[in-house]
Amino acid sequence: xxxxxxEGHNFEYEVRNALRVFDLNIKYKIRDTSEISENTxxxxxxxxxxxxxxxxxxxxxxxxNEELFKIEIKGKDIILEKENEKKLKKIVVVKSxxxxxxxYYKITPEYGLxxxxxxxxxxxxxxxxxxxxxxxxxxxxxxxxVSLDKIKLLWDVLEIEEKYIKKEYRNKxxxxxxxVPFCPTKCSYCSFTSYxxxxxxxxxxxxxxxxxxxxxxxxxLEKNLKLNSIYIGGGTPSILNEKQINMxxxxxxxxxxxxxxxxxxxEAGRPDTIDENMLYCLKKNYVNRISINPQTMKQSTxxxxxxxxxxxDIKDKxxxxxxxxxxxxxxxxxxxLPNEDENEVNHTINEIIKLKPDNxxxxxxxxxxxxxxxxxxxxxxxxYNLLKNMQKIVEERCLENNYKPYxxxxxxxxxxxxxxxxxxxxxxxxIYNMIIIEENETxxxxxxGASSKIMVNNDRHKxxxxxxxxxxxxNRIDEIIEKKIDLIREIPS
Length: 493
Description:
The protein is α/β, with parallel strands linked by helices and 493 residues long. It has 2 domains: 1-107, Ribosome hibernation promotion factor-like (Double Stranded RNA Binding Domain), CATH 3.30.160.100; 163-486, TIM Barrel (Alpha-Beta Barrel), CATH 3.20.20. It is built from 16 helices and 18 strands. The strands form 4 sheets. It has a 9-stranded mixed sheet with strand order 14-15-13-12-11-10-9-6-16, with helices on both faces. A 5-stranded mixed sheet has the order 2-1-3-4-5, covered by helices on one side. A two-stranded parallel sheet has the order 7-8. α1 links the parallel β1 and β2. The chain starts with a strand and ends in a 5-residue tail after the last helix.
């Protein structure tokens, strides 16, 4: 337990998140500053003061009544937030708090103060506002305390994303997401909307899904939007049979020549759901990118996390997909799975690289609120050093084999305070992944639990969150369509 004492501000959310960068387990309680002299255990006192037309953030960390660390951050030393008083106040508070915790926990987080999902966006926004690379680097390093290695990663990702993400397409393109929220089993780390053993529900769901797909496409065509990419995810879409897969693509084929669409991705993530007929069905529907996701090449870990397939199945199904000649195959791995260390990760990445997939997506395990793994965990461990070592192994092996980082994002409660990174062979980058993360084009999402993002102007989108429950989705689909109609009208012509 830690006690929070605030004076001159009420930034509870920001201070709590600053703490969670270091410790996911500790609870906190907000107390009145009049009680600080009676503090027991850990106590954090944080204040904003006005000094000579400047805002100064101060933080002190106590153990009982003993002062352990104190930090003072002056607003005049902050580069980016000077024009916005509220943002400036927040940054001096968070920066002072971050640094007392950094001293206490003896950890230097590589992303510093940053907790957002999309750190590359900082570069996009700063560049568009006219800042130079040197100025942006100074902001990242001095204000946000991002490490030089992570600053380099952000620029490496931006360099590739800029080839695909063009400002002039923001209000002209759209991307279609189709969600199939059914799985053969639930993986212990997963919190996505998915349903197990729901065969009787699939047919009804697909009829509703087909209706939403066609209505969404019609709305896009009425607005003269160009279809840029399609992504079919889940869940596990490969749980569907060929007739059901064809039903989805037939709803798109009514409006588009599938062969003309630049990218069609399909999450065939579970090897136990893949067979030759299903892969040929995808190929005939012009799917040009699929995912076959090992997560790990250690059999005992696959068993622990609920994957009902073998390491051999992964390799066999990958080679089958190669024989059928998909243009791009992605393979996911997860760092920080139970009972794994650097040796297991080294083995996994070496086995994957031998197969030569076009994309390798590297996730750091995140404690997701509704996942079985989170519910079964008595303690949430950041494991900074272990995850950093794992990530270094994977990154080095990818770079040595000509895989470059092309998109990245971060999550709450992620182990090592790291990130998820997609690596790709040149010209095999996934367009949809870059668009969804940087939020630069409209995404019309169809299916239970899916989220649309409608670009209502050049710099801003509005979301629509579909119902997660199957009954609500099936019975209230017209409410979702009405929301799409209203927001699509706001897209500038």
